[in-house]
């Protein structure tokens, strides 16, 4: 199997990401609908999750809505990242990996990953409280944060590659 072009590994990966993206979009729509429904009818439907609540007088309505907001944001950021990766793979398939648009796409992926990490921090605080448990500790994963840094560094490498490609195209 070839790496770029029609029927390549990059093409198959792009298709697989598109397939996965459908389910991420369904999750984002479901979380968004539940968030809007919680604004209209409240979060009484979450009462069954709070049977063993340690704090029966907690502010479950706010934490429940924040949990739904976190789920919506996590799905939205994931959708954003997958779409940017698919566009990068499309340009790679067309033989133009070092175009300037890929620099912006990689930066967008980095910001999306940053958003997911911040959403995970928020969810580690509010999600347990939404079901009546005490807040859990946020697991600071150094690998995830270094991965985000690597994506931003890779975007700068692509910026240099784009400049070199443009310079090569103008050279006779």
Automatic annotation (TrEMBL):
UniProt protein name: DUF2975 domain-containing protein
Protein source organism: Brevundimonas mediterranea
Keyword list, A-Z: Membrane, Transmembrane, Transmembrane helix
InterPro entries: DUF2975 (IPR021354)
UniProt keyword Transmembrane, yes or no: yes
Keyword Transmembrane (UniProt): yes
Transmembrane residue ranges: 12-42, 62-82, 108-130, 142-158
Top-level taxon of the source organism: Bacteria
